[in-house]
Amino acid sequence: MKPLLFAAALFYVLPGAANELQSAVAELNLALEQRLQQSAFELKSLNLEIDYISRQLVVETNNQTIIQYLKANELLRLKKKRLLADLQFDISKIRYLKGVQIIRLLYEKVLSLDHHFASVRTLGEIHKISNPTQYAEYQKLRDYISSKRDKKNNVDLSSVLATNPLVSLVNTFTNMLSSNLNKEEKEKELANIECILDFTLRMQNDLNTIYFETAFLTTSNARIKEEIEVLFKDYTKPVNYNETLEKCRANDDWDTLTQKMEEYLSKMKSTQGSAQYKMQVNIEFPVDRLLQFINQYNVFIDQGGKFYEKFRIILNSYENAQRCETKLPSEFQKMRADIDVAINKFNVAYKPVEINGSKMKEILYGLNEFE
């Protein structure tokens, strides 16, 4: 029974895997379970017969009967060997198909991530809410002070410097101090933009950090997408399927891939010796690479979730958020809401597989409690 359980441990879905993945491969698990139960019964029967003959050979004295027992024993052992070989063939088939299912699921997740990062705010949008010169209230103040200033002693900024927040603020306040506005008028005008100035000056660096770290995640996701496409190419190469993952998905060509796999396994079953072993390795190796990719994907998703948790802390750290709530840009509130949604997606929607530690060993090497 041990070889049977050893083989089974190679591809069973982990108990901790997400429901979506379990649903996708439930049919394959059922087929495997039925196959294992049938094989277990047959093996048990064969072992009982072999044990019986072995006991009889110990006590039997008739040479003719001994020869018959030996022949029967050899036939039973050959039958057991063929049964285990057929079981390994079925295991390779189901394990390979399960791998295809997982690649399909992960590719959909990667495409969802691609769409997610394509919709994040651009650097220009971040600058728009983190630069006071982009706010209508600030522009209105500048224009108002300009009309009240002493034009002989003031300097107009160039179009480039006018959009620089630090230079613009210094220029605006300098002009205000030298203007003919009285104290009450100056305080009133400052009160109109105090929340804008406070928010942009405090949050500018933080908002830029969010942008650049999101850009890093976007680049990492692009690499993940490239790697799963290369993985699919390597995964399907042994069975002589030549379409890319993108084309296979677009054309819904999964049945053709399954047919190619059936042809390969049928050829492998009829091959003998080292040639058969080589074919077995060729189809098993990509499955092991898939398991490595799953681990890599989960690391990326975990990293992305932690980044967005950090973004939430950054945005929630603005200490005057409650006092300036009505003055803050709507884009800031939407950004906070979007980050909450992103955290949920990284923790649930983008995370269909969890493999780590001993569970990875169980799938890769068949190390489990049945050994």
Encode the helix/strand succession as letters.
HHHHHHHHHHHHH
User: What is the beta-strand fraction?
Assistant: under 5%
Parts with pLDDT < 50 across at least 5 consecutive residues: 1-22, 353-371
Computed CA radius of gyration, to the nearest angstrom: 34 Å
Overall number of structural domains: 2
- Category from helices, strands and their pairing: mainly alpha
Give the N-terminus to C-terminus distance in angstroms.
Answer: 10 Å
- The best one-word shape is rod-shaped
Number of helices: 13
Biggest sheet, open or closed, and with what strands and sense?
Answer: none
Mean pLDDT: 78
Summarize the structure.
The protein is mainly α. The chain contains 13 helices and no strands. The chain has helices at 2-8, 19-59, 63-118, 123-130, 136-148, 159-162, 165-177, 183-236, 245-250, 254-270, 273-316, 330-349, 357-365.
Q: What are the salient characteristics of this protein?
A:
disordered N terminus; 2 domains; 371 residues; 0% strand; 79% helix; mainly alpha
Topology:
Elements: H1 2-8, H2 19-59, H3 63-118, H4 123-130, H5 136-148, H6 159-162, H7 165-177, H8 183-236, H9 245-250, H10 254-270, H11 273-316, H12 330-349, H13 357-365
Question: Care to describe what's here?
Answer:
Keywords: Signal. It comes from Flavobacterium aurantiibacter. By secondary structure, the chain is mainly α. The chain has two domains: 280 residues, no CATH class; 71 residues, no CATH class. It is built from 13 helices and no strands. Helix 1 packs parallel to helix 3 and helix 11 packs antiparallel against helix 12. The protein starts with a helix and ends in a 6-residue tail after the last helix.
